[in-house]
Design brief:
With 589 residues, the chain is α/β, with parallel strands linked by helices. The protein folds into 3 domains: 2-318, ABC transporter transmembrane region fold, CATH 1.20.1560.10; 337-415 and 498-509 and 526-589, P-loop containing nucleotide triphosphate hydrolases (Rossmann fold, 3-Layer(aba) Sandwich); 425-494, Rossmann fold, CATH 3.40.50. It is built from 19 helices and 10 strands. A hairpin with a 2-residue loop joins β9 and β10 (551-556).
Length: 589
C-alpha cells in the first residue's frame, strides 16, 4: 500500500477541494437515506385509507411534496458535487502532469540515455489516469459508502434486529471476496504494464523512424512484434478476467443468499403483523440501497489495487534525483570574453569503462578549435561535458577560471550556441524554430538571423514565409535548409561560445557550401569548437585537438599536424587518397 500513501501525500494541495466535494456527496447520500422514510409514511397513509381506518389526504399530499422536495435538493447537491468533481479532475490532471513534466525536465541526461521516449509517455498517461481515478473514487465513494453502510444497518436494526444482522454480515463476506479478487488481479497487472510500456515505446520509435522501417521493408516484422506483445498481454488479461468472474460469481451468490434470507424474514413478519406494509417497503428499499455501498466498496478495492500497481513507475520517476533545477532564478547575462580549460578530466558513463582519460587542454577567447579523431573516441563526450550534460568523474572544467561546479547549468548553456549534426527542429513554424530559446526576438531579428545564415532566400519564397510549418523534425525542408535554420537559431541566440557538432557531415557539396556561408557568419568573434570528419570544414581553425581512445594524442595547427606522423595525418591521407582515386577514375586528376 506504499504507493497509495504516496498518492494521498501528493494530493495534499487539493485536500480542501476534496473535503468540499465529500461534504456535498455526504449531504446527497444523507438525503437519499431520508427518501425511503417518506415512502414508508406515504404507504402507511394509503394502507390506512384502504383499510377504512381514516387517512388524511392533505397529510398525504404534504408527504409527497416533502419527498419531492428532498429528492430535488438531493439532485441539486448531486449536480454541484458532479460539477466540482469535474473541476477537481481537471486540477488533478494538470497538477500530476506538471509534477511529472517538471521532474522529467530536471533529470540528468544520463536518464534519457537509457530510456525510450514512448515508454516515458505511456508511464505518464497511465499514472495520471490511474491516480486521478483513485482520487475521484476516494472522494466520491469512500466516505459516502461508509456512512451509507452504517446508516442502513442502524435503521434496519430499529425495525428488525435479524434483518440488520444478516445485512451486516454481508459486508465482510462481500469485501473479503472483493479483496481476494483484486489481490489476484494485481499480481498480473505489473506484468501487463511492463509489456504495454515496451509496446508503446516501440510504436513510438517506429513512427519516428518510419522511413527506415519502410526502406528496409520491415513493416511485417514490426507489426508481428507488437501483435505478439498484445497477444501476451491478452493472455494475462484472460487470466485476470477468469479469476475476477469466479470471485464475482461468489460475491453475487452471497448477495442472493443473504437477500433471500432477509426478504423471507421481512415478508414473514409483515404477513404475521409484526411489521406494517410501510415498514416492509422501507426495509426492502433499505435492502436495495445496501447494494450500492457493497458495489462501491468492491469498486474502491479494485481502484486501490489498480492505483498501487499502475502508479508504481510514475512515482519511481518522481523519486529520481533531480540534477537541474530550471526554476531557480539565475543571471542570464552573457559573457563578453570566454575561455574553457579542461584540467586532467576523466569521465565514465554509469555502465561503461572510462571514456575520457586525463584530458587537459585550453581554448582561448575567439579561438576556433576542432576535435578530430576516429568515431567513438570521445569527441561528443567532450562536447557533452562542455554543455554540462554530465559532470566529470575526475578532474575540473573551468569557464573563465571558475570551476563548472560553481556555475548553474543554465548559465553555462546560455553562453553556448549549438548546431547539431541531426536536424533538431520542432514541428512548428520557421519563425518559432529560429526564435527558440530567444523568446524576446522580434520578426525583424528573426529575418536578420535568417539572412546571416544564408537562409532568407529560400524562406522568403515559401507561400507562408516565416509562418511556414516545417513538419516533424523539419521533414518538409531539405537537409541544407534544416541546417541553415539551425544556424539562424544559433545566430539569434548570440552566445559567445559556439559548438558545431558535425554540422555539415550529412550534406552534399552544394548544400555544404551554402551552409558554410552561414557558419562563417556564425563563427565570427566567437570561441568555436568544431567536431568534424570532413577536414575541408576545419582547414581554417586555429587549433586541432586529436583524440584517440579517450586521450589527447596530439594538438596543433592544421599545417603542423599535417607535417608530422599521427592520427590526424593518417585521417587526412585517407580523405586525400579517396578523393584522388575518385578524380582518377574520371580521368580528372
Amino acid at each position: 500500500m506504499k504507493n497509495i500513501f504516496k498518492i494521498i501525500k501528493i494530493s495534499k494541495p487539493m485536500y480542501g477541494l476534496f473535503a468540499l466535494s465529500m461534504f456535498l456527496i455526504v449531504l446527497g447520500a444523507a438525503l437519499d437515506m431520508v427518501t425511503p422514510f417518506f415512502n414508508k409514511l406515504i404507504v402507511d397513509q394509503i394502507v390506512t385509507k384502504i383499510s377504512g381506518q381514516g387517512g388524511d389526504v392533505n397529510h398525504l399530499a404534504t408527504l409527497i411534496a416533502l419527498s419531492f422536495g428532498v429528492s430535488f435538493i438531493g439532485l441539486v447537491f448531486t449536480g454541484f458535487s458532479n460539477r466540482l468533481g469535474d473541476h477537481i479532475a481537471g486540477r488533478v490532471r494538470r497538477f500530476l502532469t506538471e509534477r511529472f513534466y517538471y521532474k522529467i525536465l530536471s533529470l540528468p541526461q544520463s536518464y534519457y540515455d537509457s530510456e525510450i521516449s514512448g515508454k516515458i509517455l505511456n508511464q505518464l498517461n497511465r499514472g495520471i489516469l490511474i491516480i486521478q481515478t483513485f482520487m475521484n473514487t476516494m472522494s466520491n465513494f469512500f466516505l459516502p459508502t461508509l456512512l451509507q453502510s452504517v446508516f442502513t444497518v442502524v435503521f434496519m436494526a430499529y425495525y428488525s434486529i435479524p434483518v440488520a444482522f444478516f445485512t451486516a454480515i454481508l459486508f465482510p463476506i462481500y469485501l473479503y471476496l472483493s479483496h481476494l479478487s483484486t489481490k489476484e488481479w494485481g499480481k498480473e497487472e505489473g506484468k501487463k504494464n511492463a509489456i504495454e510500456d515496451t509496446t508503446r515505446g516501440r510504436i513510438n520509435e517506429v513512427i519516428a523512424n518510419i522511413k527506415l522501417v519502410k526502406s528496409f521493408i520491415t513493416e511485417h516484422i514490426e507489426y508481428k512484434t507488437v501483435s505478439e506483445n498484445m497477444r501476451e498481454s491478452n493472455k494475462i488479461y484472460a487470466r485476470q478476467s477468469t479469476t475476477f468472474h469466479i470471485y464475482d460469481f461468489l460475491r453475487n451468490l452471497s448477495l442472493i443468499i443473504v437477500f433471500t434470507i432477509v426478504m423471507i424474514i421481512v415478508f414473514y413478519n409483515t404477513y404475521s403483523g409484526k411489521l406494517s406494509v410501510g415498514e416492509m417497503v422501507l426495509l426492502l428499499q433499505l435492502l436495495n440501497q445496501a447494494q450500492r455501498p457493497l458495489f462501491a466498496m468492491s469498486f474502491i478495492l479494485t481502484r486501490v489495487q489498480e492505483a498501487e500497481n499502475g502508479s508504481k513507475e510514475f512515482f519511481q520517476i518522481l523519486e529520481l534525483p533531480s540534477t537541474e533545477d530550471f526554476d531557480r532564478t539565475i543571471s542570464y547575462k552573457k559573457l563578453e570574453k570566454t575561455n574553457i580549460v579542461f584540467d586532467k578530466v576523466s569521465f565514465k558513463y554509469e555502465t561503461s569503462d572510462m571514456v575520457l582519460k586525463d584530458i587537459s587542454f585550453d581554448i582561448q577567447e575567439r579561438e576556433k578549435v576542432a576535435l578530430v579523431g576516429h568515431s567513438g573516441v570521445g569527441k561528443s563526450t567532450i562536447v557533452s561535458l562542455i554543455l554540462k550534460f554530465y559532470n566529470p568523474t575526475e578532474g575540473t572544467i573551468l569557464l573563465n577560471g571558475t570551476s563548472y561546479a560553481e556555475h548553474d547549468h543554465r548559465f553555462i548553456r546560455n553562453n553556448i550556441s549549438l548546431v547539431f549534426q541531426e536536424n533538431e527542429l520542432f514541428s512548428t513554424t520557421i519563425k518559432e524554430n529560429v526564435a527558440y530559446g530567444s523568446p524576446d526576438a522580434t520578426e525583424k531579428d528573426v529575418i536578420k538571423a535568417l539572412k546571416l545564415a544564408n537562409a532568407w532566400d529560400f524562406v522568403s519564397k515559401f507561400k507562408d514565409g516565416l509562418e511556414s510549418l516545417v513538419g516533424e523534425r523539419g521533414v518538409r525542408l531539405s537537409g541544407g535548409q534544416k541546417q541553415r535554420i539551425q544556424i539562424a537559431r544559433a545566430i539569434l541566440k548570440n552566445s559567445p561560445i559556439l559548438i558545431l557538432d558535425e554540422a555539415t557531415s550529412s550534406l552534399d557539396s552544394k548544400s555544404e557550401m551554402e551552409v558554410q556561408k552561414g557558419l562563417d557568419n556564425l563563427m565570427k568573434n566567437r570561441l568555436t569548437i568544431i567536431i568534424a570528419h570532413r577536414f575541408s570544414t576545419i582547414q581554417n581553425v586555429d587549433k586541432i585537438i586529436v583524440v584517440d581512445e579517450g586521450t589527447i594524442v596530439d594538438m596543433g595547427s592544421p599545417r603542423e599536424l599535417s607535417q608530422r606522423p599521427g592520427v590526424y595525418k593518417d585521417l587526412l591521407q585517407y580523405q586525400v587518397s579517396g578523393n584522388k582515386k575518385l578524380l582518377a577514375s574520371f580521368e580528372i586528376y
